[in-house]
Amino acid sequence: MRHYYLIVDTETTQRGTVADFGAVIVTKQGEIVEQFGAMVLGHFGKLPLFSDPNADADAFWSEQSAQRRAKNYDDMLESGERSISSPALINQWLSGIKARYNPTLTAYNLAFDLGKCRNTRINLGIFGSRFCLMKSAKRKIGVLACYQDFCKARGLLTAKLKRPSMTADAMAKYIADTEYSGSLADEPHTALEDARDYEALILSYILRDTTRKQILELGQ
Fold it and tell me: What is the rounded distance in angstroms from the CA atom of residue 64 to the CA atom of residue 52?
């Protein structure tokens, strides 16, 4: 029986709701079967994007950066890279995905995305099988000496303790470099692109030698 995985990613507002919703359906081999990306009606454009008031002006999560990110989203809407969808329409898409694929749900920090979707009335509760991709990645990749050496060599370290980063950005860069002899740009922190180009890469890597049952256990 073929198993499918639904990877969800969100970018949020200052009110803890979803401004940008992205999702991909992937196979164990990493094949993208379907994808969906939309700005959320009633949230994007009405509520400010998340920012950290204590961040330096040039930091990605600064208030100044939030203005640039909002402009980038406006450009994506104008170019057709994004549409605007209501939570009800997103739920309709999710219901169709469940009917067609009955996938296992995952996200990089699943608890975060579940909470923000709940705040926005996006219903991920219809998926009974789920696991946290971040927890799985930490236990399968983060413990590897070669991964830790890679992070140290590339400066992919935590700000305070200078330990190897466990972000999706760092994990995906490691896989791209060691498995495909390529390089990845910094994670854009736009929902669809993060799920499709970074988190799907991590999931496919872990699933090479991990069964569905094992990955469910790793991600709890």
Answer: 10
